[in-house]
Structures
1.
Amino acid sequence: MSNTETFEGIYVAMYSAYDEQGEVDAERVKKLARYYAGKGIKGLYVGGSSGEGILQTAEERKLVLEAVMQEIRGELKVIVHVGANSTRESVELSKHAEAHGADAISAVPAIYYRLSEAAVETHWQQMIDSSNLPFIIYNIPQTTGFQLSPKLLEKLAKQPKVIGVKMSGESTFDLQQYKVAGGEDFLVLNGPDEQFLAGRIMGADGGIGGTYGVMPELFCKLNELYLANRVTEAQELQYKINAVIKRLLAYPSLYGAAKYILSLRGVETGQPRLPLLPVREEDHASLAVLNGDILALVAEYGIQ
Ligand SMILES: CC(=O)N[C@@H]([C@@H](O)[C@H](O)[C@H](O)CO)[C@@H](O)CC(=O)C(=O)O
């Protein structure tokens, strides 16, 4: 099977799961993973932006992955974000991911230092060399300040282990250029949830998204409509999804809002970790309304 066939589809960028004291809670991680296992998605992206990987210690990140693997190994594909600020820690997490049966690893460039392309290449290469897992580049220039060039992507993609890119940059032109630079079997996963359909049309093989976490069924449906060439209906659904995303983004804490919505469905994940703000009590009522609106949309599309 080709890489694109193996990994195409919808991946929830899983939120963190902490207890009431803010510590990683393995049982809550498992419950969250289980919640998604029944939703028709292809897999989970663990420890990425939505998962707060870079706010956690290496030991906590390992605990999260182990809990996920214990719960849904073989049921969902698991791509784990192993990017850390030091190459050493990233390599340690890559090896751990392989030892615990993840399907692929992925990483942002290191942040804080303004790194040259050569430094980022070395950082990624060490992770690639440290395990036998497929590697998916994570490009998110608006947060890392590093813009992946199609030239570097083309160079890295010559290695069989480098199978794709998670493209969280907003330009669908760049997305298409990565697809071209990577070659025929190079996987491109769309990052901006608001542009899932646009990304698909420009060559993405699926998507990884944080807001999928509160409406995975709707993104699966959107993907289905795209695949069935029902573009007008797909556009209509993307608009409805975007109205939800706009409401989520209006809160001071996107992750806090999404995690609160999950709690209303009986899936407790605690608050995001500072400096990401917790959800405000004054927002609870409007989030309950938003939750109801999402569930009504899911029902409108006939999804169980
Ligand atoms: C810049 C950013 O955080 N983008 C998010 C989106 O899911 C984003 O939250 C969504 O499109 C709302 O703007 C994802 O691309 C990141 C992601 O999937 C992850 O690693 O959690």
2.
Amino acid sequence: MRHRLGGLSAFTVAWQGIIYAVKHERHMKFHVFATGAVLGLSWLFHIPGDRLMFVLLAITLVLSAELFNTAIEKTVDLAMPTEHPLAKIAKDTAAGAVLVTAVFAIIVFIYVFAFPLKEWLGF
Ligand SMILES: Nc1ncnc2c1ncn2[C@@H]1O[C@H](COP(=O)(O)OP(=O)(O)OP(=O)(O)O)[C@@H](O)[C@H]1O
């Protein structure tokens, strides 16, 4: 079944999805805050372009995974409002995907910022 966009462009509806997740999803709020903090640190420490690409990749992966996770949660809630083992598996594996990207982001953070932070703190 195909819905008309009702005059809205594909970009507008995609943006509405992102705004919904940022406004209503606790974890998405944290990820957006962390994104701002990490980009601020990158600017402060003059992180070179090749390392900055790792930072941007990690941010993209985490935010995308969180958006997919929200989409899966909402779809499961729509299809299965009561408890069901398959609903649990769907939600838990979606959350697992976010966790995998978050671990990658932590590794990137350590790789990129450990040395500049150490120098800044005077160790
Ligand atoms: N319909 C369901 N049937 C069985 N287990 C469920 C169901 N809905 C949720 N759960 C279990 O509860 C957990 C939490 O689900 P919930 O929908 O509250 O998402 P969440 O992880 O709290 O995300 P958020 O905090 O972003 O809302 C799921 O990971 C799953 O283990």
3.
Amino acid sequence: MAVVIDGKQIAASYRETLKERVSALRARGIVPKLKVILIGDDPASHSYVRGKERAAADIGIDSQVIRFDDTISEREVLELIDSMNADDELHGILVQLPLPKHIDENRVIMRISPDKDVDGFHPTNVGKMMLGLETLLPCTPHGILHLVKTQTDLVGKHVVVVGRSQIVGKPVGMLFLNESATVTYCHSKTNDLGAMTRQADILIVAVGRAGLVTADMVKPGAIVIDVGVNRVDSRLVGDVDFAGVRDVASAITPVPGGVGPMTITMLMHNTVEVASRG
Ligand SMILES: Nc1nc(=O)c2c([nH]1)NC[C@@H]1CN(c3ccc(C(=O)N[C@@H](CCC(=O)O)C(=O)O)cc3)C=[N+]21
């Protein structure tokens, strides 16, 4: 029976170190500050953003959510970002995704100053990460790396990533490659997915399909990281059949209470990093 990796607990413990860093910054007159732009009325987005506000308040980060209905134009969003880029007191800018169809996500992401891009989505930060340079890392991949490191060494391990999104799949593989793991990417067009996933020492699933990974697809003793966020009958479930896979794996993240809390914590980490740059 697998160990259940307690993301909530690991996140809470990491937040304690962030609290100390924030106290030290505040003693120097620096108040870490984050602004979140939230467009539209998607209930899931509003729920995530509340989680971010709560974490910020807990750590001592000054956060503000700016809400718009989905009639706001792309130009207005870009102009708001310009004014935030110019605000010397502001450290982090986050535009909650997804955006309404009439707003180009890439144009918005690229408008945010790479120095304030606490999501780690700007091409400059993605490029630096790919080169293995120090930079603002994307929050979910960084949180996953932290969780896995509480369980095992990464050098030489076979990491299989299922899912190739810009914000999770692609960058998480890159981060683990930088840690000298052997990385395989799988996606919706992969032939015989089970044959691939059964090779994983560390299996990371970020697809968005409940029940995608079943016990027969997991090597005994593997570490399984479930990044899925699916609402099934108003219940939150991941992409992994938790009840079945926990009998096979050595460690597994639950949903909720696994990767989600770490994502938010790494957003706070990035905000503190920017505030510390001085
Ligand atoms: N610019 C941008 N940056 C993001 O980081 C971003 C985004 N847009 N859009 C949406 C996704 C999704 N995401 C989650 C964060 C925390 C939880 C989380 O904390 N979940 C809790 C449960 C929360 C609940 O019950 O609703 C948990 O897993 O325990 C989930 C999902 C960040 N995202």
